[in-house]
Amino acid sequence: MRVILYFIFSYTLCFSLKVVSQTHPSVFVNPFIGTGGAGHTFPGPVLPFGMVQLSPDTRIDGSWEGCSGYHYSDSVIYGFSHTHLSGTGVSDYGDILLMPTTGKPSMLNSDYKSKFSHKKEHAKAGYYQVELLDDTINAELTTTERVGVHRYTFPKTKKANIVIDLLHRDQTLHSDLKIMDSVTLVGYRVSNAWATEQHIYFVIKFSKPFINSSVVKS
Asked: Does residue 63 belong to any structural domain of this protein?
């Protein structure tokens, strides 16, 4: 009897280990948990202890329910910024916002924002994707420990733009942006919110050279 029980236990244990080894725990992660109500979370990718929290921003007013930058009840995306707080009850971050557009570019967030639908939005551990409905642009995001990676798929057009807004959300005390070459930008932003005089420095590398550029200071 003891031998039979041991055999059954061993067989069950081996079978269970085989199933677990083929299913990574990350497949059970739902990044949208907490993005509604007063959960204060964001759906974008971030690694444990990562310096970059890359995620879409649907709120620009720093409201309490939208202090993470994203709220599930919203239907408009203003862009994708590189720093976010999760689970807090106070607004901060939202630094270095990028937003792809088509047509005549504008630096007004009321112009470059885009509608989106949860039906064309997807997130899993380490990955976020959404279609920007106004310009039919597919946006995909992922991160390393220190780098945010964007991939934008534009429709056929001669006017594909990427807006970089250093005045997004928080009070910007100082900022600067320099064009080093046709694929490289460097800059910084100093802002005030929950954290006072917060310094963010960045380098942006494009996979394709840009043709024209314009810097608007206000």
From this structure: yes
Secondary element (H or E) of residue 141:
strand 137-143
* Count of domains forming the chain: 1
What ranges in the chain are assigned the alpha helix state H? 2-22, 109-112
Whether 148 is in a domain gets the answer yes
**CATH code assigned at 149:** 2.70.98.10
φ/ψ of residue 148, rounded to 5: -95, 130
**Residues contacting 199, CB < 8 A, separation 6+:** 188, 189, 190
The string of pLDDT tens digits covering residues 105-132 is: 999 999 999 999 999 999 999 999 999 9
pLDDT digits (tens, 9 = 90+) for 182-200: 999 999 999 999 889 999 9
- 141 found inside a domain: yes
Q: Cα–Cα distance between 71 and 67 in angstroms, integer?
A: 9
pLDDT at 181: 94
Each residue's pLDDT tens digit, 1-38: 223 232 333 333 344 444 455 678 888 999 999 999 99
Residue of 209, 166, 205 lying closest to 184 (CA atoms): 205
Residue in the block written with tokens 């990562």: 50
Q: Contact, 138 vs 77, CB < 8 A?
A: no
Considering the domain boundaries, does residue 68 fall inside one?
yes
Q: What's the CA gap between 106 and 4, in Å, rounded?
A: 75
State the Cα–Cα distance between residues 125 and 122, nearest whole angstrom: 11
Range of the domain at 61: 28-166
pLDDT of residue 24: 83
